[in-house]
C-alpha cells in the first residue's frame, strides 16, 4: 500500500474531533475526496507496517474526480484532503492513518495484510491528505476499502471506497 501525503507521511480525514498534544481538541475539515493526480517527491520511506514495505511522499495532489467508486488500475490514487479547523489554537497532533481492504499479499515478500496503519502528525495551518496509490498489480484488490484516522483506538475520521 502506498499512502501518500503532502508533508512526509501519509494521512486521512473528515470533520471529527482529535486530541491535541495538549489538553484541547481539534476538528478536521474535509476539503474533497475521490481520485487524485499526484507528484511524488522522488524518494521512498521504509515502513514495515504497510504491505509494500514503503510509502512515497508527495508534494502535490489535485482532485480529478469526486467519487467513492475507483477503477483498480496501476497509477490510480484515491483518498481525501483535509485541513484542521482552529489551527491557530492547536499544536501538532499525533494520530494513526489506517487503511482497511480485502486481503492483499505482496508477491515479493509474501506479507499479507487487511489493515495497515502508520503514525502521522497533523500540523496546524496545513492542507493535508491521505491517499492510496495503486503501484503494483497485486494491490488491485476489488471490494470495499476504508481509509481512516484514529487516535487512542478511536476512529476520528473515515471514508469508504469501492474498488472495481
Description:
- The structure is a single chain.
- This protein is an all-beta fold and 164 residues long.
- It has no helices and 13 strands.
- The strands form 3 sheets. Strands 1, 2, 3, 6, 8 and 11 form a 6-stranded antiparallel β-sheet that branches.
- β2 and β3 form a beta hairpin.
What structural class should be given to the helix and strand makeup? mainly beta
Cα-atom radius of gyration: 15 Å
Number of strands: 13
What is the count of DSSP helices, taking H or I runs of 4+ residues? 0
Mean pLDDT, nearest integer? 75
Main pleated-sheet profile: 6 strands, antiparallel
Helix content: under 10%
In the predicted model, the low-confidence regions spanning at least 5 consecutive residues are 4-24
Order of helices and strands: EEEEEEEEEEEEE
Distance between the termini: 17 Å
Question: Strand portion, in percent?
Answer: over 45%
Report the principal-axis shape: globular
Q: Which descriptors apply to this entry?
A:
164 residues; globular; mainly beta; 6-stranded antiparallel sheet; 5-stranded mixed sheet
